[in-house]
Amino acid sequence: MSRMIALAVSAAALLAFAAPALAQTPDRPGLVVTIVIDQFGADLFNQHRADFTGGLKRLSQGLVYANGYQAHAASETCPGHSTVLTGRHPARTGIPANNWFDRETGRSAYCLAVAGNRQAHGDDRADNGPVGPDNMLATSVGDWLKAASPESRVYAVSGKDRGAITLNGRTGDGAWWYSVGHGFTTWVEPGQDAAARLAPVAAVNARIAARLEASAPGWTYSNAQCRALEGEWDIGGQPFRATLPPARFEVDVSPILDEITLEAAIHLIDTQNLGGRGVTDMLGVSLSATDRVGHVFGNQGPEMCDHLGRLDAALGAFLDRLEDVPGGVLVIVTADHGANDFPERQSQRGHAEAQRVDMGLIGRTNAAVREALALEHNPLVSAAGGLVAVGADRKGLAEPLRSQVIAAAVAHLRTEPQVAGAWSGEEIMASPAPAADTRPDELSLLERHRIGFVPGRSADLVVSFDPALTPGAGRPGSYLAGHGTPWDYDRRVPILFWRPGAEGQERYLPIRTVDIAPTLAGVLGLKAPGDLDGRCLDLGLFDVPACAPGR
Which of 88, 143, 508, 546 registers the highest number of CB atoms within 10 A of its CB? Predict the structure, then answer.
């Protein structure tokens, strides 16, 4: 389905809403930079806001929406990134999760997998294998800009493929992400030359490789405030020590990942002359280290404290470069999702209810369904925030057994004390979509799932656990804390707009990441599609026209 549907979003379709060619003007920035900080929830932003002294401090002095939302339930990287520049919820971007269950093959499918493509660095076994934008069913601001102004340039760079590709859009000029041992890489479509695709980042890759080889990279650990957060916990019978420097060091699970991503972003600005050619360009920057550090170490220890200090400094140097862009710059900062700290530390801090989900729940549910329907195999597999009904070959079940399995499973799950809600996919799709003006903090649990549900990709039945519970077993050195829930600690994200010299302003009423795209369309004078889920915001800070009526 992915390539055929995606190709239907053609250049002709983009031109249907194209505006006249975009010349740079005093009230239209030469460069729009969208920064997505992976796992940088509003709670984490507000907790450390007073400590920032570099780039995050400057960005916090712009236009601050402290109560931004990823409105949907499945708070993961791929769906979260897909909302930022499309103006659509995951139900309409086609990206409900990082991975979903392929009912035809009986295997997990990655959100951006494209079987016909190759990894440009030549190792298709690395990272997530061959990828591309084909599974994205929605166009983005970069696509609208390219249709209106073909001479404009649209690029993206990230520590993860799903961070770069989603921000680059379907018709952008290039997206690169960091692959351990290979440097920044990209995908190659049939007939394309890998060396040419990697050429824009070849020089920065060489610099980074030489630097990492010349001296062993490491963390800093001089901050007394961070060191005061050291401690030790028992994680499922295994000791975990939070300390600086951490026992584990890898480039892609450290502050260095964001530092080299920002170096690559500056390299693209310099070599592609972004913002300096009399037209508006776009650059997406997805910073992945906060997510990697949060998963491995949690977000309330010395490791996250130290990482955020270094990210603050690195963003300060990045903003210094942006201030020199001849055509002026507009920066947007947000996150793809938030996160929760690992429950063992939460429990020690007085939240006795903070526990891990008893994953025996799946076994109990399978047993209940087997007994109810006299089955000889386990008919449910975990996938995409829920469960999928399968046969003995692990492939999708046909009707009527499929509906019978789902009904029996939902009935059992609703008796489990850990479960806050369970619905079949049909129940979710039969529920009305929330009104466009529903505040994101007032969406019901079912509505949060409704705006993120993609039939055929989302699970057959969706489960939400009690908000005090953390899904997944804790594994010191691998995975301690996470996200992915429909609760506000995972959904609330900062949304910042910043332009050098603009007067700061705090806005407290909630907005959504889907509001960013129509807002940028207004700033840039682009005609956006008329069916977006987001609304245009009157920024009032950058001498740009107010939103058009009805937007």
Answer: 143
Q: Label residue 385 by pLDDT band (50, 70, 90).
A: confident
Give 441-485 pLDDT, tens digit per residue: 999 999 999 999 999 999 999 999 999 999 888 899 889 999 999
CB atoms inside a 10 Å sphere around CB 399: 7
> Closest Cα to residue 299, out of 37, 3, 106?
37
Q: Count CB-CB contacts under 10 A for residue 223.
A: 16
The catalytic residue among 77, 166, 171, 185 is 77
Q: Could you give the dihedral angle defined by the CA atoms of residues 256, 262, 263 and 268, in that order, rounded to the nearest 10 degrees?
A: 150
Q: By C-alpha distance, which of 130, 134, 133 is closest to 122?
A: 130
Task: Work out the pLDDT band at 273, boundaries 50, 70, 90.
Answer: very high
C-alpha–C-alpha distance, residues 172 and 262, integer Å: 19
Residue 135: CA count within 13 A, CB half-sphere: 30
> Which structure tokens are listed for 305?
């404290």
The 10 Å Cβ neighbour count of residue 515 is 24
What is the spatial distance between Cα 250 and Cα 176, in angstroms, rounded to a whole number?
20
Q: What is the pLDDT of residue 477?
A: 86
Report the SS3 class of residue 269.
helix
Helix (H) or strand (E) holding 161: helix 161-168
Biggest CA–CA distance in the chain, Å, is: 71
Average pLDDT across the chain, whole number: 92
pLDDT-wise least confident of 70-74, 339-343, 536-540: 536-540
Contact (CB, 8 A) for 160 and 29: no
Q: What is the C-alpha separation between 326 and 279, in angstroms, rounded?
A: 11
77 among known catalytic residues: yes
pLDDT digits over 85-126, tens only? 999 999 999 999 999 999 999 999 999 999 999 999 988 888
Tokens for 226, please give them: 């961070």
204 vs 291: CA distance, rounded Å: 24
Specify the long-range contacts of residues 321-326, CB closer than 8 Å, at least 24 apart.
Answer: 321/266, 321/269, 322/31, 322/33, 322/269, 322/500, 323/500, 325/30, 325/31, 325/269, 325/274, 325/275, 325/276, 326/30, 326/275, 326/276
Q: How many CA atoms lie within 13 A of 29 on its CB side?
A: 28
Q: Provide the token pair at 442.
A: 């007032």
Q: What is the pLDDT of residues 478-511, one digit of tens each?
A: 899 999 999 999 999 999 999 998 888 999 999 9
Q: How many CB atoms lie within 10 A of CB 391?
A: 16
